[in-house]
Amino acid sequence: MLTDVLLGNYRKRVLSQLLLHPDEDYHVRELARLTGTTPGSLHKELSKLAQAGLLLRKEQGNQVRYQANRQCPVFPELAGLLRKTTGAAEVVAQALAPLQPSLALIFGSVASGTETAASDVDVLVITERGFGEVVRALYAAQTTLGREINPVVYSPAELKNHVAEQDPFVLNLLAGPRIFLKGTPDDLSQLVGHSAPASL
Amino acid sequence: MTLANLLAIQRLQAFEASPQGVQRLLAAAERNLADAQLQVLSRENRFDAAYKCILQCAMLGLWAQGYRTATSQPGHHQTTLQALPLTMGLPNDLIIVLDALRKQRNQNDYEGDPVSPAVVTECIHQAQSLLAHTHQFLQAQFPHLLK
User: Fold this and answer.
1) CATH 1.20.1440.230 describes domain B19-146
2) Are residues A30 and A61 in the same domain?
3) One domain, residues A94 and A153
4) What average pLDDT does the structure give for chain A?
5) A185 in a domain, yes or no?
6) Residues of chain A contacting B100 with CB distance shorter than 8 Å
7) pTM for this structure?
8) How is chain B split into domains, by residue range?
9) Which of A184, B55, B88, B102 has the fewest Cβ atoms nearer than 10 Å?
10) CA-to-CA distance for A190 and A174, rounded, in angstroms?
11) Contacts A135 to B, Cβ<8 Å
12) What is the ipTM for the molecules in this complex?
């Protein structure tokens, strides 16, 4: 939410994609697809950001590609700002990757974009691994994000049981805004079984 | 941070525990661990009992070294757990997990969030190993407190 106010939602999405993947360059159409924006207005936006020195503009044949400019004096600060806000998903996903969870998603205020400076990152992790293992895996990411991470850990079978029993906490969690870190909404429906309530 | 530093900033108080006091707290920790394994209880209460066992073991570490936390101070649970590497030589890595269990307790006590089975299992497992460690530690370094 903070970066929406500072940068606007449109620019936040574009800059997150570019500045949090500084080694990648993107064609305008590709970037539009990745960020859910339209290529027409994106062209203008990108060329302005390149003129300001925040992006590199490269011509490859008849294609124009854009990449984050690490040499820009404010690059580290801007990338850090994005990582702490929009980048939370990526940081948490990377921290969880070695555990190979069946499914993982962010719920709560970070997912709904209503987080404040003091908000935790609430993460649902579906795995057979223990709570302690998940906590250890996420520990360093808390420093990167400057936020506490609050994991909720269930095994696939436990999650299915809780949904079948209509556990209000789990149902609320699954029905609210979510950012998928591992798996898709379809994978989630499969995990909880086809008897899942319609809200899923 | 040393225990003496924590005393200087009043996170800890000097305290001389009696053998009777130590044995009473140790017995309480054992009862809590036994209760945590009662399947008829809710997950929240089993978790609570196991967490109490962990906190009591951590408190025994402080007592043995001549300290206690000021229970009137906010954050005294955190102080007690984070002192474990200093009091009983436990690895910092373990404190990460114990501190996460403390946060789960807050989530449950103050927000009503349910405790997941994975958290109950972890809490009981940690309580068992910390209680065993506490016994060994007292036996090896402060045997007079067990007599």
Assistant:
1) no
2) yes
3) yes
4) 87
5) yes
6) 131-132, 135, 151
7) 0.74
8) 19-146
9) A184
10) 13
11) 96-97, 100
12) 0.82
